[in-house]
Write a structure and sequence with these properties.
β5 and β6 form a beta hairpin. The chain is α+β, with helices and mostly antiparallel strands and 127 residues long. The protein has one domain. The strands form two sheets. Strands 3-4-5-6 form a four-stranded antiparallel sheet. A two-stranded antiparallel ribbon has the order 1-2.
Length: 127
């Protein structure tokens, strides 16, 4: 059969794709947040691109950096929010993901939620 002739080539191609996937994908934290090896830094966040912010988002969330902080502290660390709605601050970021190679970046929001005492109760990502 011709399949036996091409089987080693097909298996090699599948293995190459699997290895490429493992090498290229980001690491994930225990909570499932992607981490790209960049620790949160307030100055880099405030002065950085949306992509730079996206690279720090996993560390910011995983380490509960903002939990319990008041609105003034959040603005000191992250700068002014891109949008506000009631007790939520929205910060736009880019995790480097696209719908197609060479396509536009998929946009995300870091959402900072405040409780009734104006303290951070939750921080999440939303696309």
């Amino acid at each position: 059969m011709k399949i036996k002739k091409y089987l080693p080539v097909i298996l090699a191609m599948i293995l190459a794709l699997m290895v490429g996937y493992v090498v290229d994908r980001p690491a994930f934290t225990e909570s499932g947040m992607p981490t790209y090896g960049i620790e949160f830094d307030s100055q880099q966040w405030k002065n950085g691109t949306d992509r730079r912010k996206g690279a720090m988002a996993g560390d910011l969330i995983e380490n509960d950096t903002l939990i319990g902080a008041d609105t003034a502290k959040v603005q000191q660390l992250l700068g002014p929010a891109d949008r506000q709605f009631r007790n939520l601050y929205f910060y736009r970021l880019n995790k480097g993901q696209t719908l197609s190679p060479g396509g536009d970046a998929w946009s995300y929001d870091l959402i900072v939620g405040f409780d009734s005492l104006d303290r951070v109760a939750a921080v999440n990502l939303r696309d």
